[in-house]
Model the fold of this input.
Amino acid sequence: MVAITVKSSSQPVIRKNSKSMFHCWAIAATAILAITNPVSSQEVTKEQCDELYTADAVVTSSCIKTECELNGYCTIHGSTYLQDKCCKHNGVNVNLLAFEPAGEWIPRIAEFKKCTGANVLLTYVEGGEDNMAKALLEDVGSNDDPNSGQGIYDAYIVQGPWIPAAYLGLKGLNDLIKANQDVIRFDDINSASRAAITYGGSVRALPLDSDNIAAAYRQDLMNKYQSWYQETFNETLRPPNTIEEMVTISERINGQDHDGDGKPDWGFCLTPQTNYFQAFLAPIFTVQQKDASGSTGQNIFFDTDTFAPLIHNPGYKKAVEYYWRYILASNCQTQTADKKKCDRKSAFPTGRCFGVISMPGTMTNMLKEGGKYAPPPENRQDQYLKEGEWFGRRIVFPGSTEVLNWGKKDYPLMKCTEKSCPAARTIGGEVINFSPFFAEGGEAYAINGKQSKPTAVNAAWDLMAWFSTLDVNLVPLAGTYRKSQTKPEAMETLAKVWNNTVLAEDLNGVITEYFKEPSEGGNPTQDFFVVGFSDYNDALHTSLHNEFLLASTDTELGLFNMTDPSNSIKVGTPEFEERYEKFIAKLQQRYDEVNSRMTGGALQQLHNWREALDMEPKKTMDDICIDLLAAGVHDAFDRLDCIKRVNLSDQCQSMKEEVEAYQPGACAGDNSKIIAAAFGAVIGACLIGGLSYLMYRRYKSYLRIRTAHEQLMEATINESIRALHQLDYPLHLVRGDEFAVEGKLVRHEVLRNTHKLTVLDSLADVDAFIAAGKHIVFFSHQWTSFTVPDPSNTQYEAMRVSLRELAKNNGWDESLNDVFVWVDYSCIPQANPSTQNLAIRSLAAYASSATYFIIVAPDTNHADLDDKCDLTTYQLRMWCRAEQVCHSMRNGTEGMYLALGDGGDLVPVKTDFFQESLRVFEGQLTCCRLEHKGMSACDRQSLVVPLLGLYGELYRAAVDGVKGGDAESLASVKAFLDEIEKHQDSVFPPTFQRVMWRKNKKVTEEVMLFGDLIERMKHRIDHGQGFSYEEEATGTASTKSNEVSTPFIRHGASDFLRHGSGVRHGSINSASKNNIQIETAVGKLEDHIEE
Done:
């Protein structure tokens, strides 16, 4: 029995729309069904509804735990999630706000009540989906006002575009998902749906559906027209692979008589909506998920540097042309001319459509027998079907053989190749780029994290988590959204539910492609998830459909001939070109108007869009403006009102030329004013006084700059020493036995969520770990594709074999239980850019902390470039050299090996192997190959601090060894130092040439790298001015209770730095004091200038 509370005033507990039949149906049906048939979905009559509303009574019940357990109320439908939750939420009310009725709500709510005792009170928003975003914002409150929001509801049905405006009021679900990962299986949800509900670095809703756009064709009509098509066009009529093919087929089929009634019928049908147009854009725009710089590739809306709409390029025009040709051959030619809504839902059931494009739920209802929008048998041509065929066939949305060239100005179109389109498929000799558009992201369940009581939050979470364990056919509003739902057993179940194997197999074929991870070749495009989503959509819909494509030719922009649609303005005509340019101008104007209405304007929207796309590098709004100023993009700087955020005079020290180019005279200092005043004086004494004052100011300025330079150099040295003592991000390791059975390199987040990572929080913990007899093996390798490290598994196999051989050679336990592996893909976060950056900053410490270092460089081909990767190419990479140097400068080369994967043994590196690696900064970098576009610094600069610290440690060891009479035992240290001494300027370059883009021009500039830092470090150590810091015992409990007394810092495989009392790993008192802002690794000079 379900408790239903009604106030004595006959006003129901649900606060909005008290007379809504939807609300009454939700409450009353819950009570009736719980009493009569808990799993029935029968409806409640209006009379029952009215009776419930007027009843002056309270119907209550109490959950009895023994009854619940004996009757198995919590294990219904085969789910075990609730089995330990009998009566857990007894008497707790959960107010749930939804926008769309579904028959599954009532039985599921009743079942949840019988198990947990929770009262789930369901409300539907009046006006449905169109009003849900507003209702969500009103109840949760806006991000800008922490005191806003009515707080009536505890949980909501949401879609991705609604989240950004209210995400701070929605509960972050990360911790709950982690705690219930075995149930939620978050990584099993397709990547596009995961991205749709993640904002501000936190998961804000739990997906239970996925909205994407696919196409379908009529198999009965395909068979009917096969011979005619071959004879007429000398081509085989087949399902389209490209948008061009789909449009061409539609144009050719348009006008044929599908049903024999003597009237011309249509090609592919549609409802003209912005999301369907954007499906035409996606395969032309989205070439890859991440480019080589880590920036996003899945963007069809606004430029991520300037927020200029991506409408001024040939790819956008190509998509509009395809879309217009498609519309002219569709149901719109008839329905629009008849002044009716052009609607696929009303057109497809007539049997007059050859095909259709649609979202998944509606598509199913168009293709399955008896579907709401499916043509009945009398409107089909089933006589043309062969045995085992079905009339409606779902296919992936077609792709494009042409894509935008994002590397060139104005983004021209280029032919798709396997290199330019890494996610493309080759079909019939053509390289075709596919990119499914995930419109809106699908339905998801969110919790009010702002006003709801903890008891309601917990009950709402259990309801959502339980739903995620059930078959989608049992869950309200759910659809196919998990990768596991593409498995054969899932499709077999679906085929039984639909009684149609073909329909189920077609759906499986589509979602298998759509749900691929980027590492598997997936290439989805996400929707525009920012505040103002509906405003931008309205702007596009008004300009594209209402004023341009479907507007009468009698209007200024219209292309559609209402009298005779066949005489509408065609693509390629002067009239089309002229009106297209006006359409683009009008759309630009509307987008600008939307930006002006948004809080923070276009600049805030740009920041929001970068956050939604998880863009790298992370930028504040100030960073965005400064980068625009540096690049000379003055129109965007002005359009984004950057002058309100950037003080030009503050930028004169670091980018005077760029500031002056934007605003001449902006960097004219007090000196110029003094000189001007002096020259204006008529009395010679004033002139002399002015000149004297000028010289004095210049002298003072010189002193300030010199002092600032000294402070900056010393601060950089201090920071390099601090880096020896502290990890910016914990060291994550994979136990050897688990690494050896994985079968491939496994992503960090997967290992984390399955509890297969060992975490050491500090370098003191690392010392204790090794002192306890554990071995850390660092695998250094180069990635052989842009998206995954080792697509061929060649490197993983070499790692696995070398690990076992190393254990065998050293007499370790062959179970590998005491051996721990570090490899980048598994031990550095891949999903969260912020934590990833912290881990990369600790890379030098990771490499130097390892007891063994194995270079993995078997011969293999690069998956995206078709280049051969081997030891030679490995040695060319700067980061590979850096890892070697960081390890060898602390541990020597005794524990370093080569694993070349050619069947040979694990080979120790030669003692002079380090000589080439020492020239770290002569290695190749991706950022330099990309000429630092969109970047503020070069990766070279990030290595100055760690390498300077390691050099200081090495030099100090040599000095202490000589002073202590132990110089002979430090011969290997001396070899390192001698090699550095001979080639110091190439090992530690004072400066380097950096190529940047400013004012749309390539600029080469000399940037300081090490300067005189090496000589300063030597001087400090030679004069005993302090290389170590006072320490705090801040290790973990295990470290504190088990002190490591070894008086030297190394813990490698050799005695490389077994010298006197050295620096021991641990944290330092002054770590928080060296708050250095770094543009290069040695900071900004102006930050140290005192006024």
Observations:
- The first strand starts at residue 93 and ends at 98.
- The CA atoms of residues 675 and 938 lie 39 Å apart.
